[in-house]
Write a structure and sequence with these properties.
This protein is mainly alpha-helical and 320 residues long. It has helices spanning 2-19, 21-47, 54-80, 86-106, 112-122, 127-151, 164-170, 173-197, 199-209, 224-232, 235-246, 249-266, 274-280, 301-305. The longest helix is centred in the first third of the chain and has 27 residues, at 21-47.
């Protein structure tokens, strides 16, 4: 059975590469970048004395890589299959979230899930609350994205058949995508700053930042109100506004995919992007989504309410 599955995957990949070379180049570029960043991360960890077996690292990077791809590609799946039932989406997204948690528990080189759960428990969160919030954190965005794709009628766009490259090069789609990301940044930044620099926001955001060891499972560990403030008040209003403005459904769909994929990549422990290292790892400002903007962390309320010894030092102990 396993051999037959591998043969099917190989045949499908070869057939896709022949029919859709642009898609193949994009996938190959992502795989190449992911392998390179995983290698660089492994080098950094070896210098710090962390030795991990090749089998464990391969399993972790494979599951995490597919996880990042799932973040980015699910809007296209909903576009092709808008009749998908929300219950089915909830079940599939729950299975994805479980696979990421199991991956971080068994294969994470840095024992991400163990560290994060220990920090959550030390900060007063019970296991039932941790499990409930994590389940809601993975199911809610996927179900909401399904309804969003339906509501804006972003359906029927099979980019394998769609002449996407020609459209992107010869139309205003790319500038519109850039505009969408700029508007999203403008809306996301103040909401994220409020979550860090106000006492009420810090209480809501603390759950997510107890996951100071960044990984895919940490990307779905959210207080539901925190998740709504960060994303439902930035991504959806951005895409509704820009869709009303320019009416380019392809640009809107691609923007949603980029936003979701970038979020997944930012929480991947192998890619170790700026958000992972500087924001989650040390909480040193960097409240933006797409650009790197260092700020003082002295007024960061999230740091101040974390239990000392887990996560971040108190602001008064921080040397900037």
């Amino acid at each position: 059975m396993a051999l037959a599955t591998l043969v099917w995957i190989r045949d499908t990949a070869v057939d896709t590469a022949k029919k859709y070379p642009a898609v193949s180049v994009g996938c190959a570029s992502f795989v190449g970048f992911y392998v390179y960043r995983t290698y660089k991360t492994a080098q950094e960890q070896r210098k710090q004395g962390l030795q991990v077996s090749l089998t464990k690292r391969f399993a972790n990077s494979t599951i995490s890589g597919f996880g990042v791809a799932a973040f980015a590609l699910h809007p296209f799946v909903f576009s092709l299959y808008p009749e998908t039932k929300p219950l089915h989406v909830a079940v599939i997204s729950s299975a994805l979230g479980l696979s990421w948690c199991l991956n971080d528990y068994f294969f994470s080189p840095i024992d991400a899930l163990r560290h994060n759960v220990s920090c959550l428990r030390a900060n007063g969160f019970s296991m039932p609350k941790i499990v409930t919030y994590t389940l809601l954190g993975v199911v809610a965005p996927y179900v909401c994205d399904l309804f969003f794709v339906r509501a804006l009628d972003l359906t029927g766009y099979d980019l394998l058949k769609y002449d996407g490259v020609k459209h992107l090069l010869l139309s205003a789609t790319i500038p519109r995508i850039v505009m969408n990301l700029v508007v999203d940044e403008i809306l996301f930044y103040p909401a994220h700053v409020w979550l860090h620099r106000s006492k009420i926001g810090a209480v809501l955001h603390q759950f997510h930042h107890c996951c100071y060891t960044c990984s895919l499972s940490s990307g779905i560990m959210f207080n539901p109100l925190d998740e709504a403030i960060e994303f439902a008040l930035s991504i959806y209003p951005t895409l509704i506004l820009t869709q009303w403005w320019h009416g380019d459904k392809v640009a809107t769909l691609l923007s949603l995919a980029i936003m979701a994929g970038w979020y997944g990549a930012n929480h991947d422990e192998n890619l170790r992007l700026s958000h992972s290292k500087k924001h989650h790892g040390y909480c040193l400002g960097y409240y933006t989504a797409y650009v790197e903007k260092k700020e003082s962390a002295k007024n960061d309320e999230v740091r101040d309410i974390m239990v000392k010894g887990y996560g971040y030092r108190k602001s008064k102990d921080l040397k900037l």
